[in-house]
Structure formats: C-alpha cells, structure tokens
Specification:
two-stranded antiparallel sheet, 11 helices, globular, Rossmann fold
C-alpha cells in the first residue's frame, strides 16, 4: 500500500520499496535548505508504507531547548550525586549473536563503506533512553526503587539499546552526543539500563552543553553543531586536516536523534567538510517516545541498517512517524 500523504514540509515521490516517515508533531516556521538533494533509493520497509522523501524543510520549535531542560530537571538527582560516576567499567562484551547483517557482509556488498570510514553519532535522551517517559513516571536518579512494571519496560529497552550499540560498534566508530550535562549518560545508564554500561565504555561520550554552553549561551542547537564537528575531527583527524584524502576517499556519518538539532548538525558538518568527502545519513526519531515506541524505532533502524549503511551514492535523510510505532 502506498500512502498519499504530502505536507507543506515534505515532497513525497513514490518509488518501489523506498520509504520515509514524516513526523506529525514537527513544525516549521521558516524554510531551511534541503539536505544535499535527493535521498538515495533504499530498501527500507515498514509494514503498510512505501514512500520516498526528496527533501525536508523543518526547524525546531522555539521552546524546544526549554522543554529539554525541563525534561532533564524532572529526572536528574541533586547535583551532589552527579560526582559519583561509575566506579568500574567491565570488559568489552561480544554481542555478535544479536546482530543482523555482519560487518563482513556489508563490506562485501559495498567495500567503499566500511568500519574505518564510518562514524555513528547518536543522541541519548529519547533516542536511546526514554528520558521524557521516565520523568513523567516521577523517576529520578535518586529514586529509592523502580516499580516492577517500569523495570520490565526498561529491560526490553535495554536489550534494544545493546543491540543497536553493538551493531554500530561492529560497523564503525561510535559517539554519543548529548545536550545534557557531563556524566548524565553514564549515571542514567547505571540507574535505569545497567546492561549497556559495558558498551558505553567503548564509546566516545560528549556533553555538547558542558563543552559549548559558555561559548554559545542558550544556543542548544549550536552546541550540537560544535559537538558534531568535534567528534568528526577526532574520528577522522587526517581527513579533517586535509592530509588523509587518499586514505579516506569518502567517509559516512550516520546520525540518530529525536530532535531536529541532530539533523541540522549533520547538515552543517557536511556543508563544512564538503559532501565529496562526507556522505551524511540522518535518521530522525519521534520526540518524547515511551519505551515501547523507542524499542520499535530501534527495531526499524536495525531491520534497515544494512541498506542505509551500504548506500554510497547519495545522502540519506529519513524520519520516523509516530503513527506507525
């Protein structure tokens, strides 16, 4: 079935087995440039929908940074507790049995894209951890106990988080970039999803807020843009300096996030580096999901990551829609 939904912010063209979702609560008050032209034809499937989006014009709501601050305030423990970072990090774990297409299979399909020239940049709150939902349940880092029904939902989410982070680590370099304060990722993982802590020890974690709020006061989107540049330069120092062109003919950056900030940060990065050197691939999650919706989004990404990762022709710009979760 092909859906004939066209909004003011998206131009939809129907191509067999190509799909993108348009999130219903994303608003636009001004026009922004399309993300480097047309998305490439990928075999991305979710039951009941087949669509391809050529470009997306959207900006965040003006209150988004305030909403984000309120969300984190609702769940964060008193500042004194933030000094107690994880005491120990266990050894790296192998999650190969959880992965779908292996890195070797993907490399065989497209040797241009491989682990050495691939970088995943992933948001934390409401992209991996259902932070808004936890806050709505009245749960904070200093909560004495977590209700059994909530623990059950968190264990299912934890399993999905392990799968997607393990898969990303097998396919390239991985960074988690958050607009929350430093140590929030580690502390919230330790409290709510401890099963991912081993994997976090293998991942670059950067607080965009703590790193850039002094230079850019009250500019949450700019924090993300600067943080994306930082982790890109760390991942590909030769390319960033212009000396590694032969070794890295082209790299890809795959961005996962629930906010338009992540997409715009990727767009800004690719414009700075140049799309002849950097192939941007963005997947926007829905905002403020519950754990079940977040698990479903991760499943969709994992089911289609083979094609998203292996595509080397054109930028990829995808958006998940709430009504299909």
């Amino acid at each position: 079935m092909i859906l004939d939904k066209v909004s003011a912010n998206a131009r939809i063209s129907h191509i067999p087995l190509v799909m993108i979702f348009k999130e219903s609560n994303l608003t636009s008050e001004r026009t922004t440039p399309p993300l480097f032209g047309t998305t490439s034809p990928l075999n991305i499937t979710v039951p009941g929908t087949i669509e391809c989006k050529e470009d997306l014009d959207a900006t965040p709501k003006a209150s988004q940074s305030l909403e984000e601050a309120e969300m984190l305030e609702a769940i964060m423990a008193p500042p004194s507790m933030q000094s107690s970072l994880m005491d120990a990090k266990r050894g790296a774990s192998s999650e190969e049995a959880l992965l779908g297409a292996s890195a070797a299979q993907l490399h065989q399909k497209n040797p241009i894209m491989h682990a050495d020239n691939s970088l995943f940049i992933i948001d934390w709150d409401d992209t991996l951890l259902a932070t808004s939902w936890l806050g709505a349940q009245g749960l904070r880092l200093d909560a004495a106990e977590i209700p059994a029904v909530v623990q059950e939902e968190l264990r299912a989410l934890e399993e999905s988080m392990v799968q997607i982070l393990s898969h990303a680590l097998s396919l390239g370099k991985v960074a988690i970039v958050t607009n929350a304060e430093s140590s929030w990722v580690e502390l919230s993982a330790r409290k709510f999803v401890p099963g991912v802590c081993d994997l976090l020890s293998q991942i670059r974690i950067l607080s965009a807020r703590s790193s850039y709020q002094d230079a850019f006061p009250n500019q949450a989107e700019q924090w993300k843009m600067e943080a994306y540049k930082c982790v890109f330069h760390e991942a590909f120092p030769d390319l960033a300096s212009g000396s590694g062109k032969a070794h890295y003919p082209r790299v890809q950056v795959l961005s996962l996030g629930d906010s338009i900030y992540e997409r715009n940060a990727l767009m800004s990065l690719a414009e700075t580096v140049g799309t002849e050197k950097l192939l941007p691939k963005s997947v926007k999650f829905v905002e403020r999901p519950n754990p079940g919706q977040l698990v479903r989004q991760i499943e969709i990404v994992l089911d289609n990551l083979h094609d998203v990762y292996a595509s080397s022709a054109d930028p990829v710009d995808l958006m998940l829609e709430l009504e299909y979760l």
